[in-house]
Amino acid sequence: MVFNTDVTANFWAVAPEIALAIIGLIVLGLDLYSRESQRRDVGYFAGFLLLALAAATVFVPTPDGSLSEQLVLGGMLRHDQFTQIFRTMIYIAAALTCFIAMGDNRMRYKGEFYLLVIVATIGASLLAGASDLVMVFVALETLSISLYALAGFVRDDARSAESGLKYFLIGSFATGFTLYGFSLLYGFTGATQIYGPDGIGQQLAAGKLNDAPIIVAMMMIVVGFGFKISAVPFHFWTPDVYEGSPTAMTAFVSVASKAASFAVLLRFMLAVFPPEKLAVGAAADYSELWVPLISVLAVITMTIGNVVALVQKNIKRLLAYSSIAQAGYALMGVAAIATTDGGQGAASVAFYMFMYILTNILAFGCIIVFANATGSETIADFASLGRRNLWLAMFMTIALLSLGGIPPAAGFIGKFYLFRAAVDADLILLAVAGVLNSIIALYYYLVIIKVMFVDPSPDEDKDIPMPANYAWVLGAASLAVVLLGTVLANPVIDWATQAGLELFI
Amino acid sequence: MQLENTGVSIVSAVLFSPLVGVLVLLFWPRLTDKQVRIATLINTLVTFAFSLLMLSQFDSSKGMQMEQVDEWIAGLGIYYHVGVDGISIWLVMLTTFIMPIAVLASWTGIEEKVRLFHGFLLLLEVAMVGVFVSLDLFLFYIFWEVSLVPMYFMIGMWGSKDKVDFFGREMEARIYAAVKFFLYTVAGSILMLLAILYVGNKAETFDFMLIRDLMRSGQLVFTEETERLLFVGFFIAFAIKVPVWPLHSWLPDAHVQAPTAGSIILAGVLLKLGTYGLVRYNLEFFPNAAIDFAPYIGALAVIGIIYGAWVSYAQTDVKKLVAYSSVSHLGFVVLGIFAMNSAGIQGAVLQMVNHGVSTGGLFLLVGMLYERRHTKAINAFGGLWKIMPIYSGFALVIALSSMGLPGLNGFVGEFTILVGSAGSDTLDIWYTVLATIGIILAAVYILFMFNKVFMGPVTKQENQELEDLTWGGNWYELSALVALTVVIFVIGLYPKPFFELMDGAVGDLVAQLDATLQVAMK
Amino acid sequence: MVPLYMYLLVAAALFCIGVFGVLSRRNAIAILMGIELMLNAVNINLVAFWRYLKPDEINGQVFAAFVFVVAAAEAAVGLALIISVYRNRNTVEAEDINLLKW
Questions:
Q1: How many CB atoms lie within 10 A of CB A207?
Q2: Given this model, what pLDDT does residue B55 score?
Q3: Residue A306: CB partners within 8 Å, gap ≥ 6?
């Protein structure tokens, strides 16, 4: 396999990660050497730099044309538009996480929180482009280990420590499965590179190997990734971790880690177990195996997620189950990649994750403001939020409508695109299941909206203060959600489509 | 497939002028309640003026016109494509006409969160006009869904204060109604989304005009079974909205709980989104399935006509009576549509407008009574004619129009529909006979209600002091009623221009249906 | 020479013991040990495959080296988390760590 050896191209491929590492060091230095009173600015500093990085990443050139041009650093990474779009959204997620973390006094003055977020971002960002088993593993662990530490960040809060420990134990257990699958893949082919004529994908597709062990390896890898994206039945850590962790961390784990895991899942499935049209002289088409597997996972995931969400009383737990369901919707797009021609499957997942990042962080940001003022995360306590702080209630409503898929919020186009990809891939029944699930989901989103605007509350007269800087961040995120559903939809969808197409080169 | 971008059309002005009001209400720093009301009224009147301008430019000899195409989400083949034809223009006119009346109807009725309420009102106007003018299936679906959200809030936040028993727990009736309304409609519309996705996938475009051309030229053909499934996907969404019996159970709840303006808009315009969809999408896209299903849907429509009238008669609550009468009236519209001939469809379109005007008027009247007396029970009234002669005069005209008295608008619509269904190739003569019974029943329940509320001696002491309508005291109520009454008489006495403008669009549709029918009969 | 499948059998057995340990143990540290066993099974697999299939390329060995490093980092973070739970609750028994429950 020939790789791109051009120094400039190799540099550009990892320039964002280099920048991230530098930002991380600066944040660490600032935290060490600045006085206590200035330390709160570290978060702003990290947030704005990450936002600037997200903007700059859009303009990073990718090598175009062939696969061998796009494989850089000896085949460790593939630098294509798919990498680019996922990177950009992960940086946006990290920036917003820094901003909303500043509302929480337990993290506000701690520079190491922002450093951990940045390190996790490096991992997520590499994961989006990883094209070698070693790289996938290292990036996955860079992301995960930082997240374990973040989940247990508030050491003197028993719930945070507990959620950190649970996340750690279950996460590393899942990693064990992924790794065992990886070691088998290496054993079958003698390669760690997933692309190329002597890479794992083409060797498996040549059909010289026994099917059974390959299926075992595939299952193990799906289990490992299933944990990461919290697909049912590997979801049971999600509600505990979401509820116990500091809310800013919950926001981050629910979007950045999920987006990166979906990126690697899409790339991995398509490259390692290629459908017929991607394999040269294919004899074995393993996509016939994993498409039904992923479809079934998708249906179970969204159904269980939505049904259990119906009975939740804690808003963070509810969003945890809703995010399980959202992962189920996105899995429809993964199931659709093998049979759609234009890469709509991958493109729809990319767009969905883009909108999901903005929406979910918006929702969690609203929860932080609310919890800071009232000390409660119970849904019933959201009563009369519309009277206590109308803007906060409006922001939350936009987030919930977007999660429920009601236009003009971006969630609608996201769902529309996913359903369309499923229909295009002739997975009509899957689309029907998705559609039915969206109806169930609407119910509990609507109940929260109803609670906020209609239910009476004994604290009706107590205003909920929203700091101005917070109002700006949440306002900007709400605006972004609405714009992404209307005028900005086109450029992002074009980008996602381009990304999806490049997976098929 | 590509479409050329065009210049800005007057249709977009009608569509987006209420959005200006929404933005003003959202971001203008300080406004008193009175200023909010006046601003909203002016905004809706300006929109109405735009729509009049659009009407004056309408050329009845052409089909779809005043189109505007702009690229939107090119990646998914989705365009911003709007335009009007002889069918949709009347529904746009109805919407822009009803909105100022809805604003006037909430002049004193809405006292909490006035700004938010009027914001929702204007947002709803954008969504409803959007449904009627969009010529892209995706755009259509967006507006369709958006129309739910403001209505949900209007019922849920400003609805009545009643309580209901919900599985043993006491619950606010308005919440129950709002959630029921929302879930019913979404459940239907999501099936439609699947059908839209499928059609879009096969046609490789979401554009209404392109798909129509593909279908007419035979380049896009579905198998019989697929066509039926797609027909059902669209039909259930629209039938819930209309509502066609037996999918109507959300309607009485929503109507009774909604504030007056909400009821007016719900009855006046929102229900027409469904009937409009039946004409525009079901008949246009799936004529074969429509012919197959017409007898069954006609039967549902006739059951709805008689059931609605029967249940109306049994009501003790005026608002519920009017709500159930809607089920009956819209049965006529559906019957006319599935008669699938020129008279049936023209009558149906005109009857949509008529029902919007007269039922909207009835809800307005009920709202006025409720504000004065704080009850809607029929037997709480009696002899109002003696106390409120002007009010009662308007009530008589509007009630008679709803009943279908010759010379008023309701008669023209219903009569044309019956002519259509009698001469229909798809419906048996019995449908017409049974529907005629519905007209008689309508006369019974309307006159029964009118008699109890307005005639006879004043039996209740509380009613002695009720305030009549005067220009000085409550100009907003009087002007709304005057506007409605004028329209009732204009359509009733001189319906010719209304039919003439429809001719092009309906003729075009009927020609297609006839061709399909000819094939089907062989 | 010992055939390849013997190594693979040992690795598979070790992996299963690890999984069993994770699922059956009550103590968080013992669960952590189970996870380490799973990772060690992977390492045996990797090194055996490398030695028997592609001894002239280094990627199998490199992979195994990375697994060591990452496992060490993981254990460090994990033990720190266990200590922080112990400080709060005075226990590391999985059944007692139950503040969060659906």
A1: 14
A2: 87
A3: A321, A322, A325, A437, A440, A441, A444
Contacts of A342 (CB under 8 A, 6+ apart): A497, A500, A501
Q: At what angle do helices C59-89 and A158-189 cross, to 10 degrees?
A: 160
CATH class of the domain at C4-96: mainly alpha
Output the pLDDT for position B30: 79
DSSP-assigned letter for residue B377 = B
> Is the CB of residue B513 less than 8 Å from the CB of residue B340?
yes
Alpha carbon of C70: minimum distance to chain A alpha carbons (Å): 7
Percentages (nearest 5) of helix, strand, coil residues in chain B: 75, 5, 20
Query: Which runs of consecutive H residues, i.e. helices, occur in B258-341?
Result: 260-265, 271-277, 284-285, 287-313, 318-339
Task: Sort strands B65-73 and B78-84 into parallel, antiparallel or unpaired.
Answer: antiparallel
Structure tokens at C10: 């040992």
Instruction: Name the A residues in 365-424 with CB < 8 Å from any B CB.
Output: 390, 401, 406-408, 412-413, 416-417, 419-420, 423-424
3-class state of residue B182 by DSSP? helix
Buried b (16+ CB within 10 A) or exposed e, A446-483: bbbbbbbbbbebeeeeeebebeeebeebbeebbebbbe
Q: A163: which chain C residues are within 8 Å (Cβ-Cβ)?
A: 100
| C102 band by pLDDT with thresholds 50, 70 and 90 | very low
Within 93-132 of B, beta carbons closer than 8 Å to A belong to 116
List helix spans (H) across C1-58: 4-24, 28-53
CA angle A116/A14/A228 to nearest 5° reads 50
Radius of gyration of chain B (CA): 22
Question: What whole-number distance in Å separates Cα of residue A137 and Cα of residue A216?
Answer: 19
- Chain C residues with CB within 8 Å of chain A CB: 8, 11, 15, 18-19, 22, 28, 31-32, 35, 38-39, 41-42, 45-46, 49, 53-54, 57, 59-60, 62-63, 66-67, 70, 73-74, 77-78, 80-82, 84-85, 87-89, 97, 99-102
What is the per-residue pLDDT for C13?
Answer: 95
Whole-number pLDDT of residue C9: 93
Higher-pLDDT residue of A163, B1: A163
pLDDT-flagged residues of chain A (< 70): 1, 282
Residue given tokens 């505007």 in the structure block:
B68
Mean pLDDT across B179-187: 83
Which of A406, A417, A478, A484 should one mutate to test binding to chain B, selecting the residue with the greatest count of B CBs within 10 A?
A: A406
Q: Is B186 on the interface with A (CB under 8 A)?
A: yes
* pLDDT given at position C100: 61
Q: Which of A467-476, B50-59, B75-84, B345-354 is least confident?
A: B75-84
Which is it for strands B163-166 and A71-72: parallel, antiparallel or unpaired?
A: unpaired
DSSP A45-58: HHHHHHHHHHHHHH
Q: Domain spans of chain C?
A: 4-96
Q: How many residue pairs from chains A and C have C-beta atoms closer than 8 A?
A: 135
Q: How far is CA B457 from CA B37, B388, B397, B460, in A?
A: 38, 13, 21, 9
Q: Of A143, A178, A199, give the one whose Cα is nearest residue C41.
A: A178
In this prediction, residue B152 has a pLDDT band, given cuts at 50, 70 and 90, of: confident
Model pLDDT, residue B2: 58
d(CA B104, CA B106): 5
DSSP per residue over A340-376, as a string? -SSSHHHHHHHHHHHHHHHHHHHHHHHHHHHHHHHS-
d(CA B114, CA B41): 13
* Bridge pairing between strands A77-78 and A71-72: antiparallel
The structure's pTM equals 0.85
